[in-house]
Amino acid sequence: MNIIIGAGIGGLSTAIRLAAAGQKVAIYEQNTAVGGKMSQITAAGYRWDTGPSVITMRHVFEELFASAGRQLADYLTPPPRRATHPLLFPRWHSARCEPRHGHHPRPHRPSQPPR
What are the tens digits of pLDDT across the range 58-68? Predict the structure, then answer.
């Protein structure tokens, strides 16, 4: 039996790969919902994501689903790969998502902070 502590994206991904390889898996999570940083808060009829809301490395998820004999497209419909908006990070780092297969967004430092 493989024991996984935490049902965040890492724990769930590990469990999927192990189970697909025929291993027995038990996942232990301290919270009431799975997802880790990819959870939601619901209050007053509104829902907020508490973590990532874009998939910038779709191939990682496609490979994970393929390892279990599944296809990502059977479970969600990601938007087309195109540069729709920049991604902004602390300290004014940014990246643009470009529709180039096999490449990752390259971080750069803009000369001015965004307005």
Answer: 888 899 999 99
